[in-house]
Write a sequence for this structure.
């Protein structure tokens, strides 16, 4: 192996070499490596180019908080951009690419942006690309013009264009205790809860449980911490009531202890077995949650702090101990706290020269002094790093004395040559989930960190999450939290755990930025979005002092890492600028997700055509007859039954003419049907319909209109009285669900005393409407057990009989304006009855007709549908005021005549005749004076139009302002969108057979 | 959010349809007081805290439920069938008098119906 790998140690398998490709070059790593550790071990320091300035960037952390080393993973033609290299487990054949560089990572032409760095400050784009006040590029047009070029030069990885063929799954889970995080605290909590008998889910981001125990180098109960963790993990996986989910990020904490988690099932595999998902999104409902999410180390901001080779102290320690990878051969540590000395000691122990330890504090603890001596490092007390040297990798640091009281550097600058710098600005508990659960974080001055809020939901915290940074405390808290979550007062086996550790106080000095006077070089706060300390200061100068404004103006914390490393340093700088304390500046509320979540896993199987189809009992017949089907909500209905060579218009005109002249049949199974049953059913219908139903004789139907509570027309349909206490209500196809809900609301909430039950029976009935002068002849030829002559079955009458053995119910109704009947039968008999009607109708030339012909027939008659009952029109507007009973109150009766609803100038239903023999378009506007291309002064619009075979011209229904008073007048269609202008005559909406002689005869 | 339906048990909120403020009272059906109708139709309480609401269990038993929900925490302190009109839990805004159980039937409406008192104060 290369010289950058330790001889022994770590959880990598040194016998298994794995080869992979990064930027087209082949590398070799070990089983257990992440992409970051494998590349570091191969001597790679440069991982990517930064967002705005294209600065060279290396690995900064070892975990989910990684802001710099983002790569694109390629699987076939599928690209997945912006994945932290620290989170990618290598496998044989892995292909990864660096991002935001052209033509190559080492030589990037956009790196010239660094030269103009002074110009590219916060708000640069907003300010610069604001267009002139006048001219072709005024306003935002200049930005639109430049955006293309800016997008090319700024940004991160690019998404692919190929469809992602991977499978995704979602799953629901329930447990007594969900433990988030499998570090020492989480392991202890899960064990304690499980031993109390609870169903436990333990979720861990990493592939291997243990958290800091994997790399702390501590000894727990006499064993190396990593061995202790492995033993705990093994014991847990043996318990039947514990489900361990490695590679799983709990990313959202929602109401009622509902948490969302994403499990990366397949990302670490070269190939997956068939059917296995790539990601699985978990919705976990937990009685109790134990948050043991640990803490994230944060950097100190200083000039040149983004040079590849500068990284978090804990990251270097983790690479050395967990992966056996040394990030440098000569390193230094820059810290404001004691805990980071453990990292220096670990490096020393791994065989690295620790050249210097720079500590901002003047008075150091004995622990720190001793550790520095053990490392053999030059100890710079009360000093700070004021600059770094090097280009694509770190070559040296510049150190200057630092005054903690004044936060200023002064005196001689010393330079030290090193190839890696470990930085620690203290630790921030990862309290994101607790914040999501609904409470504000609390600032702790001692730890210089936001601590979790008091629980707003049923969770308990343990370990570093609580700010308890010692392993022994973490385990104790974990045991207690786990046991308490399980309802026990204390853990069943309260073992005091002895931890042999570098005992250090984690509390840092309140220094998160070094701002040397006249310093050169950028000091980065948010690495991923290239936000510098000067940008934060600029935001304050320009008045963006609120933390929410600061975030939006500078984009601080808005990158894919969501400010995991930059949040607290950014606040500290703003606080110092404003002369306030950090808690006074405040922090933004954390929102889900904790880390980016694949959209595929959220959608899972719900993509493509996801709506259910509703098919009538006669659906297959329609399709077999060559019907062109069209959607009506979820239903599929025949549009036309076209014959070869026919246009749509020719087809529906033929079908409609057949109905007027002979007989036609149409599938009406889609109409909403509601059984209204009970002793008070009649009274109930009187309340919901504008007209009376309690007086309807048994065996009769009546056309009814419903209003909404505010007096607007809601729905229409016929309701049939089948017996004293039983009605069958029909609704329009589109409103079936809404009407059902409307009835249920009034029965449950307004009139709970009424003895009525409503049941949706839409799917129980198959229906065919048969209409035309010869319709009665067809029925007479096939109906048995009932007479269908005019006396036995008058208009609005109902009879029950049989058609070829199938029971049917026939009601004489007409939507087409012809003599017509609706024949209903059990849905299972639908096709049978339809076939019988077709056979019986054959001698009479029966024609099946679709929605277009149905529409043409009703337009000729001026019958309204949802296009006219559009939620704005009243019964008056639609000339349905004859249906408004004056004998009783009903829903909308007291509100229908409010001022605005009876005012002049309302749109009223009229008919239109095309005077230029050209087709009309639905939605077109109508004007009094035509100016082509001038879409103003509309007096209304077309709601439905067709070619009328009965009138032999193009006609339409329209809602026209004061329409009734305009009848007989000429107006014009004005439809600039479709370039259709032309004269029309406004006529009564009853365009055909206004007396209704055809349907009553 | 889980709502414990009296028939179906605890169910995910996705099964329910929000039916709004449960404090509004429908005026007497014959009332000519357009202000009262206006208040009933358009005015809704929007409380930061415990609020009386109706929810329809549309994906289950299709009952309307009377629910007391904290609008700040989504904590649900009371669920009952809307038909039962149980008293709200302690701390919730009190329900106004329930609407008349029945509207006057058509035949009984010959004589003018009494006007209801204005039911304001819900703002």
């Amino acid at each position: 192996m290369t010289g950058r790998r330790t001889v022994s140690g770590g959880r990598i398998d040194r016998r298994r070499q794995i080869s992979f490709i990064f930027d087209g070059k082949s590398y070799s790593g070990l089983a257990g490596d992440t992409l970051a550790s494998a590349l570091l071990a191969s001597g790679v320091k440069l991982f990517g180019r930064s967002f705005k300035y294209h600065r060279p960037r290396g690995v900064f952390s070892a975990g989910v908080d990684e802001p710099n080393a983002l790569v694109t993973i390629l699987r076939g033609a599928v690209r997945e951009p912006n994945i932290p290299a620290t989170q990618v487990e290598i496998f044989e054949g892995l292909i990864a690419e660096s991002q935001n560089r052209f033509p190559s990572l080492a030589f990037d032409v956009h790196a010239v942006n660094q030269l103009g760095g002074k110009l590219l400050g916060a708000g640069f784009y907003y300010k610069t690309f604001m267009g002139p006040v006048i001219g072709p590029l005024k306003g935002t047009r200049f930005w639109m013009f430049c955006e293309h070029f800016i997008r090319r030069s700024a940004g991160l990885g690019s998404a692919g264009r190929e469809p992602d063929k991977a499978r995704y799954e979602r799953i629901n889970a329930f447990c007594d205790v969900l433990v988030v995080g499998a570090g020492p605290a989480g392991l202890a909590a899960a064990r304690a809860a499980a031993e109390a008998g609870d169903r436990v889910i333990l979720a861990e981001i990493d592939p291997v449980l243990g958290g800091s125990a994997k790399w702390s180098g501590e000894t727990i109960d006499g064993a190396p911490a990593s061995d202790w963790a492995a033993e705990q993990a093994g014991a847990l996986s043996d318990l039947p009531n514990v489900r361990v989910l490695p590679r799983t990020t709990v990313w959202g904490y929602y109401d009622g202890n509902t948490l969302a988690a994403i499990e990366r099932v397949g990302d670490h595999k070269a190939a997956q077995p068939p059917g296995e998902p790539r990601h699985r999104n978990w919705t976990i409902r937990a009685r109790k949650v134990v948050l043991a999410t640990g803490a994230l180390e944060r950097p100190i901001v200083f000039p040149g702090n983004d040079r590849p080779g500068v990284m978090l102290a804990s990251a270097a320690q983790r690479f050395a101990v967990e992966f056996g990878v040394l990030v440098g051969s000569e390193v230094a540590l820059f810290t404001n706290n004691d805990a980071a000395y453990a990292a220096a000691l670990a490096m020393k122990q791994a065989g690295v020269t620790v050249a210097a330890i720079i500590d901002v504090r003047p008075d150091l603890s004995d622990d720190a002094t001793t550790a520095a001596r053990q490392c053999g490092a030059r100890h710079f007390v009360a000093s700070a790093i004021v600059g770094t040297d090097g280009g694509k990798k770190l070559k040296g640091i510049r150190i200057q004395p630092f005054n903690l009281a004044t936060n200023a550097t002064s005196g001689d600058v010393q330079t030290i040559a090193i190839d890696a710098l470990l930085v620690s600005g203290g630790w921030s508990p990862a309290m994101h989930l607790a914040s999501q659960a609904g409470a504000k974080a609390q600032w702790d001055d001692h730890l210089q960190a936001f601590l979790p809020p008091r629980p707003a939901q049923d969770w308990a915290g343990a370990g570093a999450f609580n700010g308890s940074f010692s392993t022994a405390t973490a385990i104790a808290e974990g045991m207690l939290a786990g046991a308490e979550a399980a309802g026990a007062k204390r853990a069943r086996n309260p073992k005091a755990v002895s931890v042999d550790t570098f005992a250090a106080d984690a509390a840092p000095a309140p220094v998160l930025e070094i701002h040397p006077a006249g310093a050169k070089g950028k000091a980065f706060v948010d690495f991923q979005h290239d936000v510098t300390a000067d940008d934060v200061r600029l935001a304050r100068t320009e008045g963006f002092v609120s933390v929410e404004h600061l975030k939006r103006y500078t984009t601080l914390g808005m990158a894919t890492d969501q400010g995991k490393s930059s949040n607290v340093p950014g606040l500290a700088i703003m606080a110092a600028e404003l002369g306030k304390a950090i808690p006074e500046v405040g922090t933004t509320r954390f929102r889900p997700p904790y880390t980016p979540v694949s959209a595929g896993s959220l959608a899972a199987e719900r993509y493509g055509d996801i709506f259910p189809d509703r098919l009538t009992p006669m659906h297959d017949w329609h399709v077999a007859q060559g019907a062109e089907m069209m959607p009506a909500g979820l239903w599929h209905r025949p549009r036309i039954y076209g014959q070869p060579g026919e246009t749509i218009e020719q087809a529906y005109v033929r079908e409609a003419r057949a109905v007027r002249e002979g007989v036609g049949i149409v599938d009406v199974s889609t109409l909403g049907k509601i059984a209204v049953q009970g002793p008070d059913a009649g009274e109930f219908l009187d309340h919901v319909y504008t007209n009376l139903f309690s007086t309807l004789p048994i065996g009769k139907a009546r056309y009814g209109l419903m209003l909404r509570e505010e007096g607007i027309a809601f729905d229409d349909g016929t309701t049939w009285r089948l017996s004293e206490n039983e009605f069958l209500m029909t609704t329009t196809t589109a409103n079936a669900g809404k009407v059902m809900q409307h009835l249920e609301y009034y029965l449950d909430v307004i009139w709970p005393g009424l003895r009525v039950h409503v049941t949706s029976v839409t799917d129980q009935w198959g229906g065919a409407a048969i209409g035309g002068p010869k319709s009665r002849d067809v029925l007479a030829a096939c109906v048995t057990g009932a007479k269908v002559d005019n006396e036995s079955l008058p208009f609005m009458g109902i009879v029950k009989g049989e058609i070829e053995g199938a029971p049917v119910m026939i009601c004489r109704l007409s939507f087409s304006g012809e003599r017509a009947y609706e024949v209903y039968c059990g849905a299972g008999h639908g096709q049978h009855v339809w076939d019988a009607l077709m056979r019986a109708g054959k001698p009479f030339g029966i024609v099946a007709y679709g929605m277009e012909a149905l529409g043409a027939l009703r337009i000729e008659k001026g019958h309204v549908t949802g296009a006219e009952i559009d939620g704005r029109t009243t019964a008056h507007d639609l000339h349905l005021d004859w249906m408004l009973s004056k004998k009783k109150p009903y829903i909308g009766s007291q509100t229908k005549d409010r001022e605005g609803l009876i005012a002049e100038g309302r749109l009223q239903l009229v008919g239109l005749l095309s005077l230029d023999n050209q087709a009309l378009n639905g939605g077109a506007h109508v004007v009094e004076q035509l100016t082509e291309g001038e879409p103003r002064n509309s007096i209304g619009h077309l709601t439905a139009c067709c070619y009328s075979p009965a009138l032999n011209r193009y006609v339409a229904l329209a809602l026209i302002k004061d329409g009734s008073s305009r009848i007989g007048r000429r107006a014009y269609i004005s439809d600039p969108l479709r370039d259709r202008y032309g004269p029309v005559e406004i006529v009564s909406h009853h365009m055909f057979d206004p007396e209704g002689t055809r349907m009553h005869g | 959010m889980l709502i414990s339906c009296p028939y179906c048990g605890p169910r995910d909120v996705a099964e329910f349809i929000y039916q709004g403020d449960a404090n509004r009272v429908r005026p007497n059906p014959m009332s000519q007081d357009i202000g009262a109708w206006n208040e009933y139709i358009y005015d809704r309480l929007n409380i930061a805290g415990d609020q009386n609401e109706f929810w329809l269990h549309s994906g289950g038993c299709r009952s309307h439920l009377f629910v007391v929900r904290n609008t700040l925490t989504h904590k649900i302190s009371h669920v009952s069938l809307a038909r039962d009109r149980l008293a709200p839990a302690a701390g919730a805004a009190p329900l106004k008098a329930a609407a008349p159980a029945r509207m006057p039937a058509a035949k009984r409406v010959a004589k003018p119906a009494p006007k209801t008192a204005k039911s304001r104060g819900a703002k």
